[in-house]
Amino acid sequence: IGMTPLPVFVLLSLVCLCKSDDRLTPEKSLNAGDKLVSSGGIFALGFFTPANSTADTYIGIWYNKIPERTYVWVANRDKPIKNGSPGKLAMSSNSDLVLSDSQGRTLWTTTNNFTSATTGTAAILFDSGNLVIRLPNGTDIWQSFHYPTDTALPDMVLPLSTNDGILMRLIAWRAPDDPASSDYSMGGDSSSDLQVVIWNGTRPYWRRSAWDGSLVSALYQSNTGFIVTETIVDRGGELYMTFTVSEGSPSMRMTLDYKGTSKFLVWNSNSSSWEAFIEQPSPICERYAYCGPFGYCDAAETVPKCNCLSGFEPDGVNFSRGCRRKEDLKCGIDNNFSTLRGMKTPDKFLYVRNRSFDQCTEECRRNCSCSAYAYANLRNGSAYANLKNGSGAADQSRCLIWLGGLVDTGEFRDGGGENLYLRLASSTVDKESKVLKIILPIVVNDESRRLRTNIRHSTCKIPS
């Protein structure tokens, strides 16, 4: 049976329909039903309506090749398009992206402060998942990586400290199908540029141990062979955290979920699902100050639980009141320091700059209110060695001291952590000692293991 050949213009139309377009320009807007697809087909940007809603519409970025719809960025999370009204995303005359509803009301926009458009400017969706407004000369004037929602992708930078004091946070979705901002957020601690915190509103919910100056922390999962490298980057005295994945790795993301849990997730193509290989806080005693003053989360136990630091005992029937000293200190008389190894350093520390180990010890010893101290040498390539103190000199060490109670302390089970020097009555130090435990790598599931190492590099150079 003969077939009538299709006209050339029909063939061209079909080609156009199948072509992936990765950019918006002042001449081309994005309307309901349209989407941008990155050049390699990894990510898509378009309009979506959550499963639990029939009226609210958002503009967002999701994985284009993963069958389980997974959003990594939402522009108008707190101001959806209502009542099923069609929306439009367009580039304005001053090179800004503007999201509007059918009535022309602006629901979301970038702010580039350009007075006029530059011919050739485009908003481009990259295979990294980053949406970038780029000028013809290659200058990027805005990018979605600088305004995340609940997800961090490889090569995205999260600030731990900034010169202007403005810190960016991941903010969790309100519910699994509601992208609106919740009370849970995660980012650098504004009171210290040394740690990352998850907040529930204004209250800390989980806290990462203070940085000890290491540049790289490598995470390895053997069943698939991928490597995640978490890096501290110093850019002109500002510290950023970022993570990269080895070439050929499956899709991976870090997200803060609606329950306040931070997760590193990897896509398993065999099971067609996301698998978490790191979750924090986990176990439950890792929640902020869960074990009370002078108590600590002992993750080295078979079943992690709260214990008292050496020289302390429970102050009540549970750990809601923490622990109390077995023997009271007498200022300046028969005090000594017990070395606790592999510890998560407590919160609420005083950062004393440019001290030797002996000087750090003396800072604590001569202050009767000092309960403990920790020390790290920041030379040999540490990011902190480039930070300036008030006199303009580079910091060479990190001396932390604690005045009063110690809260949110833990012991790592995988060989991580650092030494915490705890002040006790000398007689107590003689009676008690803390044994360093050797623990095998954590088993993540039946087929995989996680090995976490903190590596200090003297020759590591991080590009700015």
Could you walk me through the main structural features you see in this protein, from its secondary elements to its overall organization?
With 464 residues, the protein is mainly beta. The chain has 3 domains: 18-146, Orthogonal Prism (Agglutinin, subunit A); 148-282, Agglutinin, subunit A; 291-425, no CATH class. 6% of the residues lie in helices and 41% in strands. The chain has 3 helices and 36 strands. It has helices spanning 8-18, 357-365, 426-431, and strands spanning 23-24, 30-31, 35-37, 43-48, 58-63, 71-74, 88-91, 97-100, 106-109, 122-125, 131-134, 140-143, 151-152, 158-161, 169-175, 178-188, 196-200, 203-207, 216-221, 227-235, 238-245, 252-256, 262-268, 273-280, 295-298, 305-308, 312-314, 323-325, 335-344, 350-353, 370-377, 397-403, 409-411, 418-425, 442-445, 448-455. The strands form 8 sheets. An 8-stranded mixed sheet has the order 26-25-33-29-34-31-32-30. The chain has a 6-stranded antiparallel sheet with strand order 14-21-20-19-36-35, with no helix packed on it. Strands 1-10-11-12 form a 4-stranded antiparallel sheet, with no helix packed on it.
